[in-house]
From TrEMBL:
Signal peptide: 1-25
Region of interest: Disordered: 150-243, 261-292
Sequence ranges of Pro residues compositional bias: 153-163
Biased amino acid composition, Low complexity: 183-199
Protein's UniProt keywords contain Signal: yes
Designated name of the protein: Uncharacterized protein
Record keywords: Signal
Organismal lineage: Bacteria, Pseudomonadati, Pseudomonadota, Betaproteobacteria, Burkholderiales
Domain of life: Bacteria
Length: 292
């Protein structure tokens, strides 16, 4: 008999939304991509030798955006640099994860410190990453999500019917109406629709690989931020994940040096400025002095 596991629910205030599937996501049951939070841009995904890569910007905060592409609840056990993002333990499939409702979209913005806070993810040099600072540098540079479908949930027990009693016809009609209103309608079966993975493949420029141009990137333990969550019971359908999604990352210079990104590919655009000629906030100036 399977033991229910308590998993952290992805009820993240201001980070959860119901959106259309992203254009450059990786995954089948869950779509995964990375958002540069400082520029607001979604990082392009590159495929090279059977692996998926994104180019991080050193110093930038980022979020792992996950979207449940199915019509049922799923749980994603998430790791960054080989470390579970909820517990801080060296990552394993049987640990706590985020539970996503059907078609739910959420952004995981940091290492969870409590039900109310996270320490922000940000790209940093490998020696300054959280994994390296806690003595686990071997798996720096990878984001992973192990996806589990939910086991069959037994239907609720029907409420016992009250013992019949003699009533006038009018009272009997009123009593039956109350019983019908109190009875729980049987839920209809949800259609399970799995979104096809988006085509995010970009043919990498085939060139002679060289040594990384800059130090490898890892994920740092940034400033505390508000991020609200709760817990919910979740029984896995199987002890083995139904899907394992792996997304590697490094700096753009290093990905160019390794032949993953074409050297001539333009960098992703930054966030446009609506008032480029007014970089500083200004207030109402004083009126001119009256000359005597």
């Amino acid at each position: 008999m399977k033991t229910p596991r308590l998993a952290l629910a992805a009820t993240l205030a201001a980070a959860t939304a119901w959106l259309a599937p992203p254009a450059h996501a990786v995954g089948r049951l869950i779509d995964v991509n990375v958002i540069d939070r400082d520029s607001g841009t979604q990082l392009p995904v590159y495929r090279h030798n059977g692996q998926w890569w994104v180019a991080g910007r050193p110093g930038a905060r980022y979020a792992v955006q996950v979207r449940n592409a199915t019509g049922e609840r799923v749980m994603g056990v998430m790791s960054v640099d080989g470390v579970n993002v909820i517990s801080g333990d060296t990552a394993s499939w049987d640990q706590s994860g985020y539970v996503l409702s059907r078609y739910q979209n959420a952004q995981i913005t940091g290492w969870r410190k409590s039900r109310d806070e996270v320490a922000a993810f940000h790209f940093t040099a490998l020696p300054h990453s959280y994994a390296a600072r806690t003595g686990r540098p071997d798996n720096v540079g990878v984001i992973g999500v192990a996806v589990f479908r939910e086991g069959d949930v037994p239907p609720p027990r029907p409420l016992p019917r009250p013992a019949p009693r003699y009533e006038s016809p009018a009272a009997g009609e009123r009593s039956a109406g109350v019983a019908r209103n109190q009875a729980s309608p049987s839920p209809s079966a949800s259609a399970r629709a799995e979104a096809a993975p988006a085509d995010a493949e970009v043919d990498a420029w085939q060139s002679q690989k060289s040594a990384p141009a800059t130090p490898r990137l890892g994920t740092g333990h940034g400033e505390r931020e508000a991020s609200y969550s709760g817990t919910t019971p979740f029984e896995r359908r199987s002890g083995q994940p139904d899907e394992v999604i792996t997304l590697r990352y490094d700096s753009r210079d290093n990905l160019v040096a390794m032949g993953i990104i074409p050297a001539y590919a333009p960098p992703p655009p930054g966030r446009p400025d609506a008032f480029p000629e007014s970089p500083d906030a200004r207030y109402v100036p004083d009126p001119p002095r009256r000359w005597r």
